[in-house]
TrEMBL record:
Function: The beta subunit is responsible for the synthesis of L-tryptophan from indole and L-serine.
GO MF term list: tryptophan synthase activity
Keyword ATP-binding part of the UniProt annotation: no
EC number(s) given by UniProt: 4.2.1.20
InterPro entries: Trp_synth_b_CS (IPR006653), Trp_synth_beta (IPR006654), Trp_synth_beta/beta-like (IPR023026), TrpB-like_PALP (IPR001926), TrpB-like_PALP_sf (IPR036052)
Name of this protein: Tryptophan synthase beta chain
Protein's pathway: Amino-acid biosynthesis; L-tryptophan biosynthesis; L-tryptophan from chorismate: step 5/5
Source organism per UniProt: Nitrincola tibetensis
Protein family per UniProt: Belongs to the TrpB family.
Organismal lineage: Bacteria, Pseudomonadati, Pseudomonadota, Gammaproteobacteria, Oceanospirillales
Length: 400
């Protein structure tokens, strides 16, 4: 297997190439540096690593399964498709991987409240779960549009004891929820911690969330090598902020022969303004305390974005993804809302696995690509979450 050599990412200032950093007021930089210091301390502590490892196994249910989707592979007639089953995790998605780490960090730092945003509700449910486990109050900000789309997750968050804050301003979706949560955090950053839900925001969050999520790729790499004596030819995962994809990709970055594809939402079409294809159509800019690719209006403001999947409708993206795009190490493709819906139903009816609408973007890319490849090639899809949260919404769309 050919090897590439990547230096440390990020650097000491939190930059991945030219992306990332701390584009925030000096007083908030001091708070973020305290979080970084505490994170670097706690990650070196054997007792923390042992506790996290135990919770990954006994609470989340890791390692998540690697499944050969034989019927789907046969139906498509090309590459063999494999699924990394993050949908089988406790809480139903990959988000719990970093939420456990963030909740334990908050407890270690003596914080009195954990604040976060959520789009599809998976991060909200996972964080409310983790906070209930460690015994720390939790406040989740969620756009009103997403509250109406993701009712099952809203109910779960309330059952788990979090305070849910509906956000009605702007487009009432993920970007507005981030703004609202960050404003609440700024009221008392010494005692609160903002548990960012993806590999976005100011340093150290893109690094910290990536590190907790990298268990996905580490497991997948070991599972594939153990079963087949080789690595997959292609990896694919959906990209909004980008934590499930960077979680899968990180362990394979140095393997030149493994091709990686992040799939963004083309929404109602790249020729419309109803998409969230940040890396495809955006340009370098600033949002939420970091430099990354951003979809902007002519006035330089973040553009209102759209995706059928609530967890992907974000006008920015993780800085490491921005860097990997510029390097050409990861390719970024898109899938439309309709392709996503078709993939959701196809995987459900061919393999009996209902994927999240977010994950369905990656499934759509695989469905499109597998027939163009020979049968000895392999595609590994990260099924980042399960689709029961989307079932009522999909049923309404499709008149089921």
């Amino acid at each position: 297997m050919s090897k590439l050599e990547f230096g440390p990412m990020p650097d000491a200032q939190g930059y991945f190439g030219e992306y990332g950093g701390q584009i925030i007021p000096p007083e908030l930089q001091a708070v973020m540096n305290d979080i970084d210091k505490a994170y670097e301390e706690i990650r070196q502590m054997p007792e923390f690593q042992d506790e996290l490892k135990t919770l990954f196994a006994d609470y989340i249910g890791r390692p998540s399964a690697l499944f050969h989707a034989r019927r789907l592979s046969d139906k498509l007639g090309g590459a063999q498709i494999f699924l990394k089953r993050e949908d089988l995790n406790h809480t139903g998605a990959h988000k719990v991987n970093h939420c456990l780490g963030e909740a334990l960090l908050a407890k270690y730092m003596g914080k009195t409240k954990v604040i976060a945003e959520t789009g599809a509700g998976q991060h909200g449910v996972a964080l409310a779960t983790a906070c209930a486990l460690v015994g720390i109050p939790c406040e989740i900000h969620m756009g009103q549009v997403d509250i109406e789309k993701e009712h099952p997750n809203v109910v779960k968050m309330k059952i788990l004891g979090c305070t849910l804050i509906p956000v009605t301003r702007g487009t009432a979706t993920l970007k507005d929820a981030v703004d609202s949560a960050f404003e609440e955090y700024l009221k008392d950053p010494q005692n609160y911690i903002y548990a960012i839900g993806s590999v976005v925001g100011p340093h150290p969050f893109p690094k910290m969330v990536r590190d907790f999520q990298s268990v996905i790729g580490e497991e997948a790499r070991e599972q594939f090598l153990s079963r087949f004596g080789k690595l997959p030819d292609y990896l694919t995962a959906c990209v909004g902020g980008g934590c499930n994809s960077i979680g899968l990709f990180t362990a394979f970055l140095n393997d030149e022969d493994v091709q990686m594809v992040g799939v963004e939402p083309a929404g109602k079409g790249l020729d419309t303004d109803q998409h969230s294809a940040t890396l495809t159509l955006g340009k370098p800019g600033q949002i939420h305390g970091m430099k990354c690719y951003v979809l902007e209006t002519e006035d330089g403001e973040p553009m209102p974005v759209h995706s059928i999947a609530s967890g992907l409708d974000y006008p920015g993206v993780g800085p490491q993804h921005s860097y990997l795009k510029d390097l050409g190490r990861v390719q970024y493709a898109t899938a439309t809302d309709q392709e996503c819906l078709d993939a959701y139903m196809t995987l459900s009816r061919v393999e009996g696995i209902i994927p999240a609408l977010e994950s369905s973007h990656a499934v759509a890319w695989a469905i499109r690509t597998a027939p163009t490849l020979s049968k000895d090639k392999t595609i590994l899809i990260n099924i980042s979450g399960r689709g029961d949260k989307d079932a009522d919404y999909v049923a309404e769309l499709l008149k089921l």
